[in-house]
Structure formats: C-alpha cells, structure tokens
Amino acid sequence: SDIGAQKDRVVTEEEWLRKWEMNNIGFHKEQGHPLLQKYLDVLLNGRSGLRIFFPLCGKAVEMKWLADMGHSVVGVEVSEQALKEFFAEHSLPYCEEPVPEISGAKKLQSTSGNISLYCCSIYDLSSSIVGKFDGVWDRGALVAVNPRDRQSYASLMITLMEKNSSYLLVTVSYDPNKHKGPPFYVPESEIKSLFG
Fold it and tell me: What keywords were assigned to this record (predicted)?
C-alpha cells in the first residue's frame, strides 16, 4: 500500500504533550462525533451496560455521553492535562491513583466510578490491567499512531476485545504525499490486513 512519505514519519510523545500544552488540538471535537451518533446501534448492538474503550482519548466528550447512558468507559492518553481538562469541563469529581503495574502511570477515575482514564502510553496497557471491552470507539487513534507502530497497536487492540465486541473506526482519506500527518492516511487494504 502506498502511504507515500508518511511511512517513516514519527511523532514523539513529547510532540503530543506539546500540542496539548500549546492548545494546538484541532483534532479535539467540542461536539460529539456525528459518526458515533450515526453508528451507535452498531457499537451497542442492543446491549446495555457495556465496557467501552477510547484509545488515545484526549478529552473526548463522547466519553461522558456514553457513561451517562449507563456504560462504563475506559480511556488512555499520554497527556495528563487532557484528562484533567476532561473532568474539569464536565464538572466531574475524580480521584487519582497510581497504576502499580506501569511505572509512572496514573489512573484518573470519576467518583461515580464509570469513567476510568489511564495516563500512560497505550503500549503499556494490557488486558490484565484494564480488562477486556465490549466496544471500541477509535476516532483519531489509529490515524495518530506512527505508521511503523500500527501492527503493534492493532495487535494490542485485538487482545483487549471481548469475543463479540464492536470496533468503530474513523479514518481519513487523502493523498499522503500532500500532507505529512497526523492524522495519517490508513488505506482500506491496510485496515483489513491489521484487523482481519
């Protein structure tokens, strides 16, 4: 698959943290994503009280929306600032605790217990730490992962999914030679080879 000049592009954790510090977060949507609303039935599949995972969650407003519907939401994000802004912007009280299995990681959990956000690298997570999920909302995660890390990302995501879980994935389509990313261009053929 031709992903042009993007193949070797690497965005470091420091660069992501700087984007949050500088409020250079054009990827954050103040309103819930229309595609999640449109395909919510596919994600939920008639089920209630699901565990839903938000990889590279930032301060996605959809986390509160799904939690308010009675689902349990788990997110992961390297920027502690993003996670604290999420709780502040929704006036949600939370507590913070270390994650013993991951050096330097924290878990910020809403007092109500239905939103748990991990502040660490997604690659430090495993199902033994966060459990498995009935649904995944991937809007801005796969397209933000460095192209060379996509295989490890997809393999990890597969290990975090329950047997009958739903995975909603949003990608962007454009000429990868005209924009260096992120968001990165992920061709349909690569999505099929990553997730089967």
Answer: Cytoplasm, Methyltransferase, S-adenosyl-L-methionine, Transferase
